[in-house]
Amino acid sequence: MIYKRRSIRKYRRDKIPRNDILELIEAAKAAPSAKNRQPWKFIVFSGAEKEALLAIMEKGIDREVEIPMLPGSASGIEDAKNTLRIMREAPVTICVVDPDGYSPFEELNPDQRFTEINSTLSIGAAVENLILKATELGYGTLWIGNTCFAYQELLEELNVDGQLVCAIAVGIPAELPEARSRKPLDEIAEFRGD
Ligand SMILES: Cc1cc2nc3c(=O)[nH]c(=O)nc-3n(C[C@H](O)[C@H](O)[C@H](O)COP(=O)(O)O)c2cc1C
Are 8 and 175 in contact (CB under 8 A)? Predict the structure, then answer.
């Protein structure tokens, strides 16, 4: 499944059975995590609840244009709007929250920073498990970091403590993209010793 997975940006409208979503989360929770903290919560949106969440995301992106909280990332706003359009097409949005995570707008000391790195890595492992299981079940996914442009608005709407780390769009794919390019092995692998 590792080599079959693609980011999917076109979806059919078909609903996804709840048992399939549970199977995805079951795969996610099998991931390793630092100190086995399992620093994740998966909040699954579909139907009218998903539309409402995405309306809030749109408001947040519009606010970001007017009153930027991430002024250094303004060039990413158009991409965020495109991501939102894709999320509207996919029947399910899964929000991934670290319940003990810090706000990205908070200053961290080095201890907190390392804890955060480990939690983020753990969540990344869980999300990868989830999207590989989705690929195995015939679903397409899009891993979404563009939630950052509507960070406060989305967190408020989720009404949870912690950090919104990312979201995942899930649905039946309506496209089969070619594999996207990757850096060559000799650029990323370095051997020191035998
Ligand atoms: C942490 C993370 C955040 C991402 N955020 C977005 C996003 O907000 N919108 C989007 O269209 N793609 C997003 N992607 C998908 C990447 O663009 C994609 O993985 C990359 O271009 C490689 O393509 P592939 O997944 O088909 O191999 C994200 C991927 C990761 C891992």
Answer: yes
pLDDT digit string, tens, across residues 159-182 = 999 999 999 999 999 999 999 999
Is residue 31 a contact partner of residue 129, using CB atoms and an 8 Å limit? yes
The arrangement of secondary structure in 18-188, i.e. its CATH architecture, is 3-Layer(aba) Sandwich (3.40)
Q: How many angstroms separate the alpha carbon of residue 5 from the centre of ligand 1?
A: 12
CB of 180 sitting under 6 A from ligand 1? yes
Cα–Cα distance for residue pair 118/134, rounded to 1 Å = 24
CB 170 within 8 A of CB 141: yes
Q: Distance, CA 144 to ligand 1 centroid (Å)?
A: 6
Q: Nearest C-alpha to atom 3 of ligand 1 is from which residue?
A: 145
Please give the Cα distance from 112 to 178 (Å, whole number): 40
pTM of the complete model: 0.97
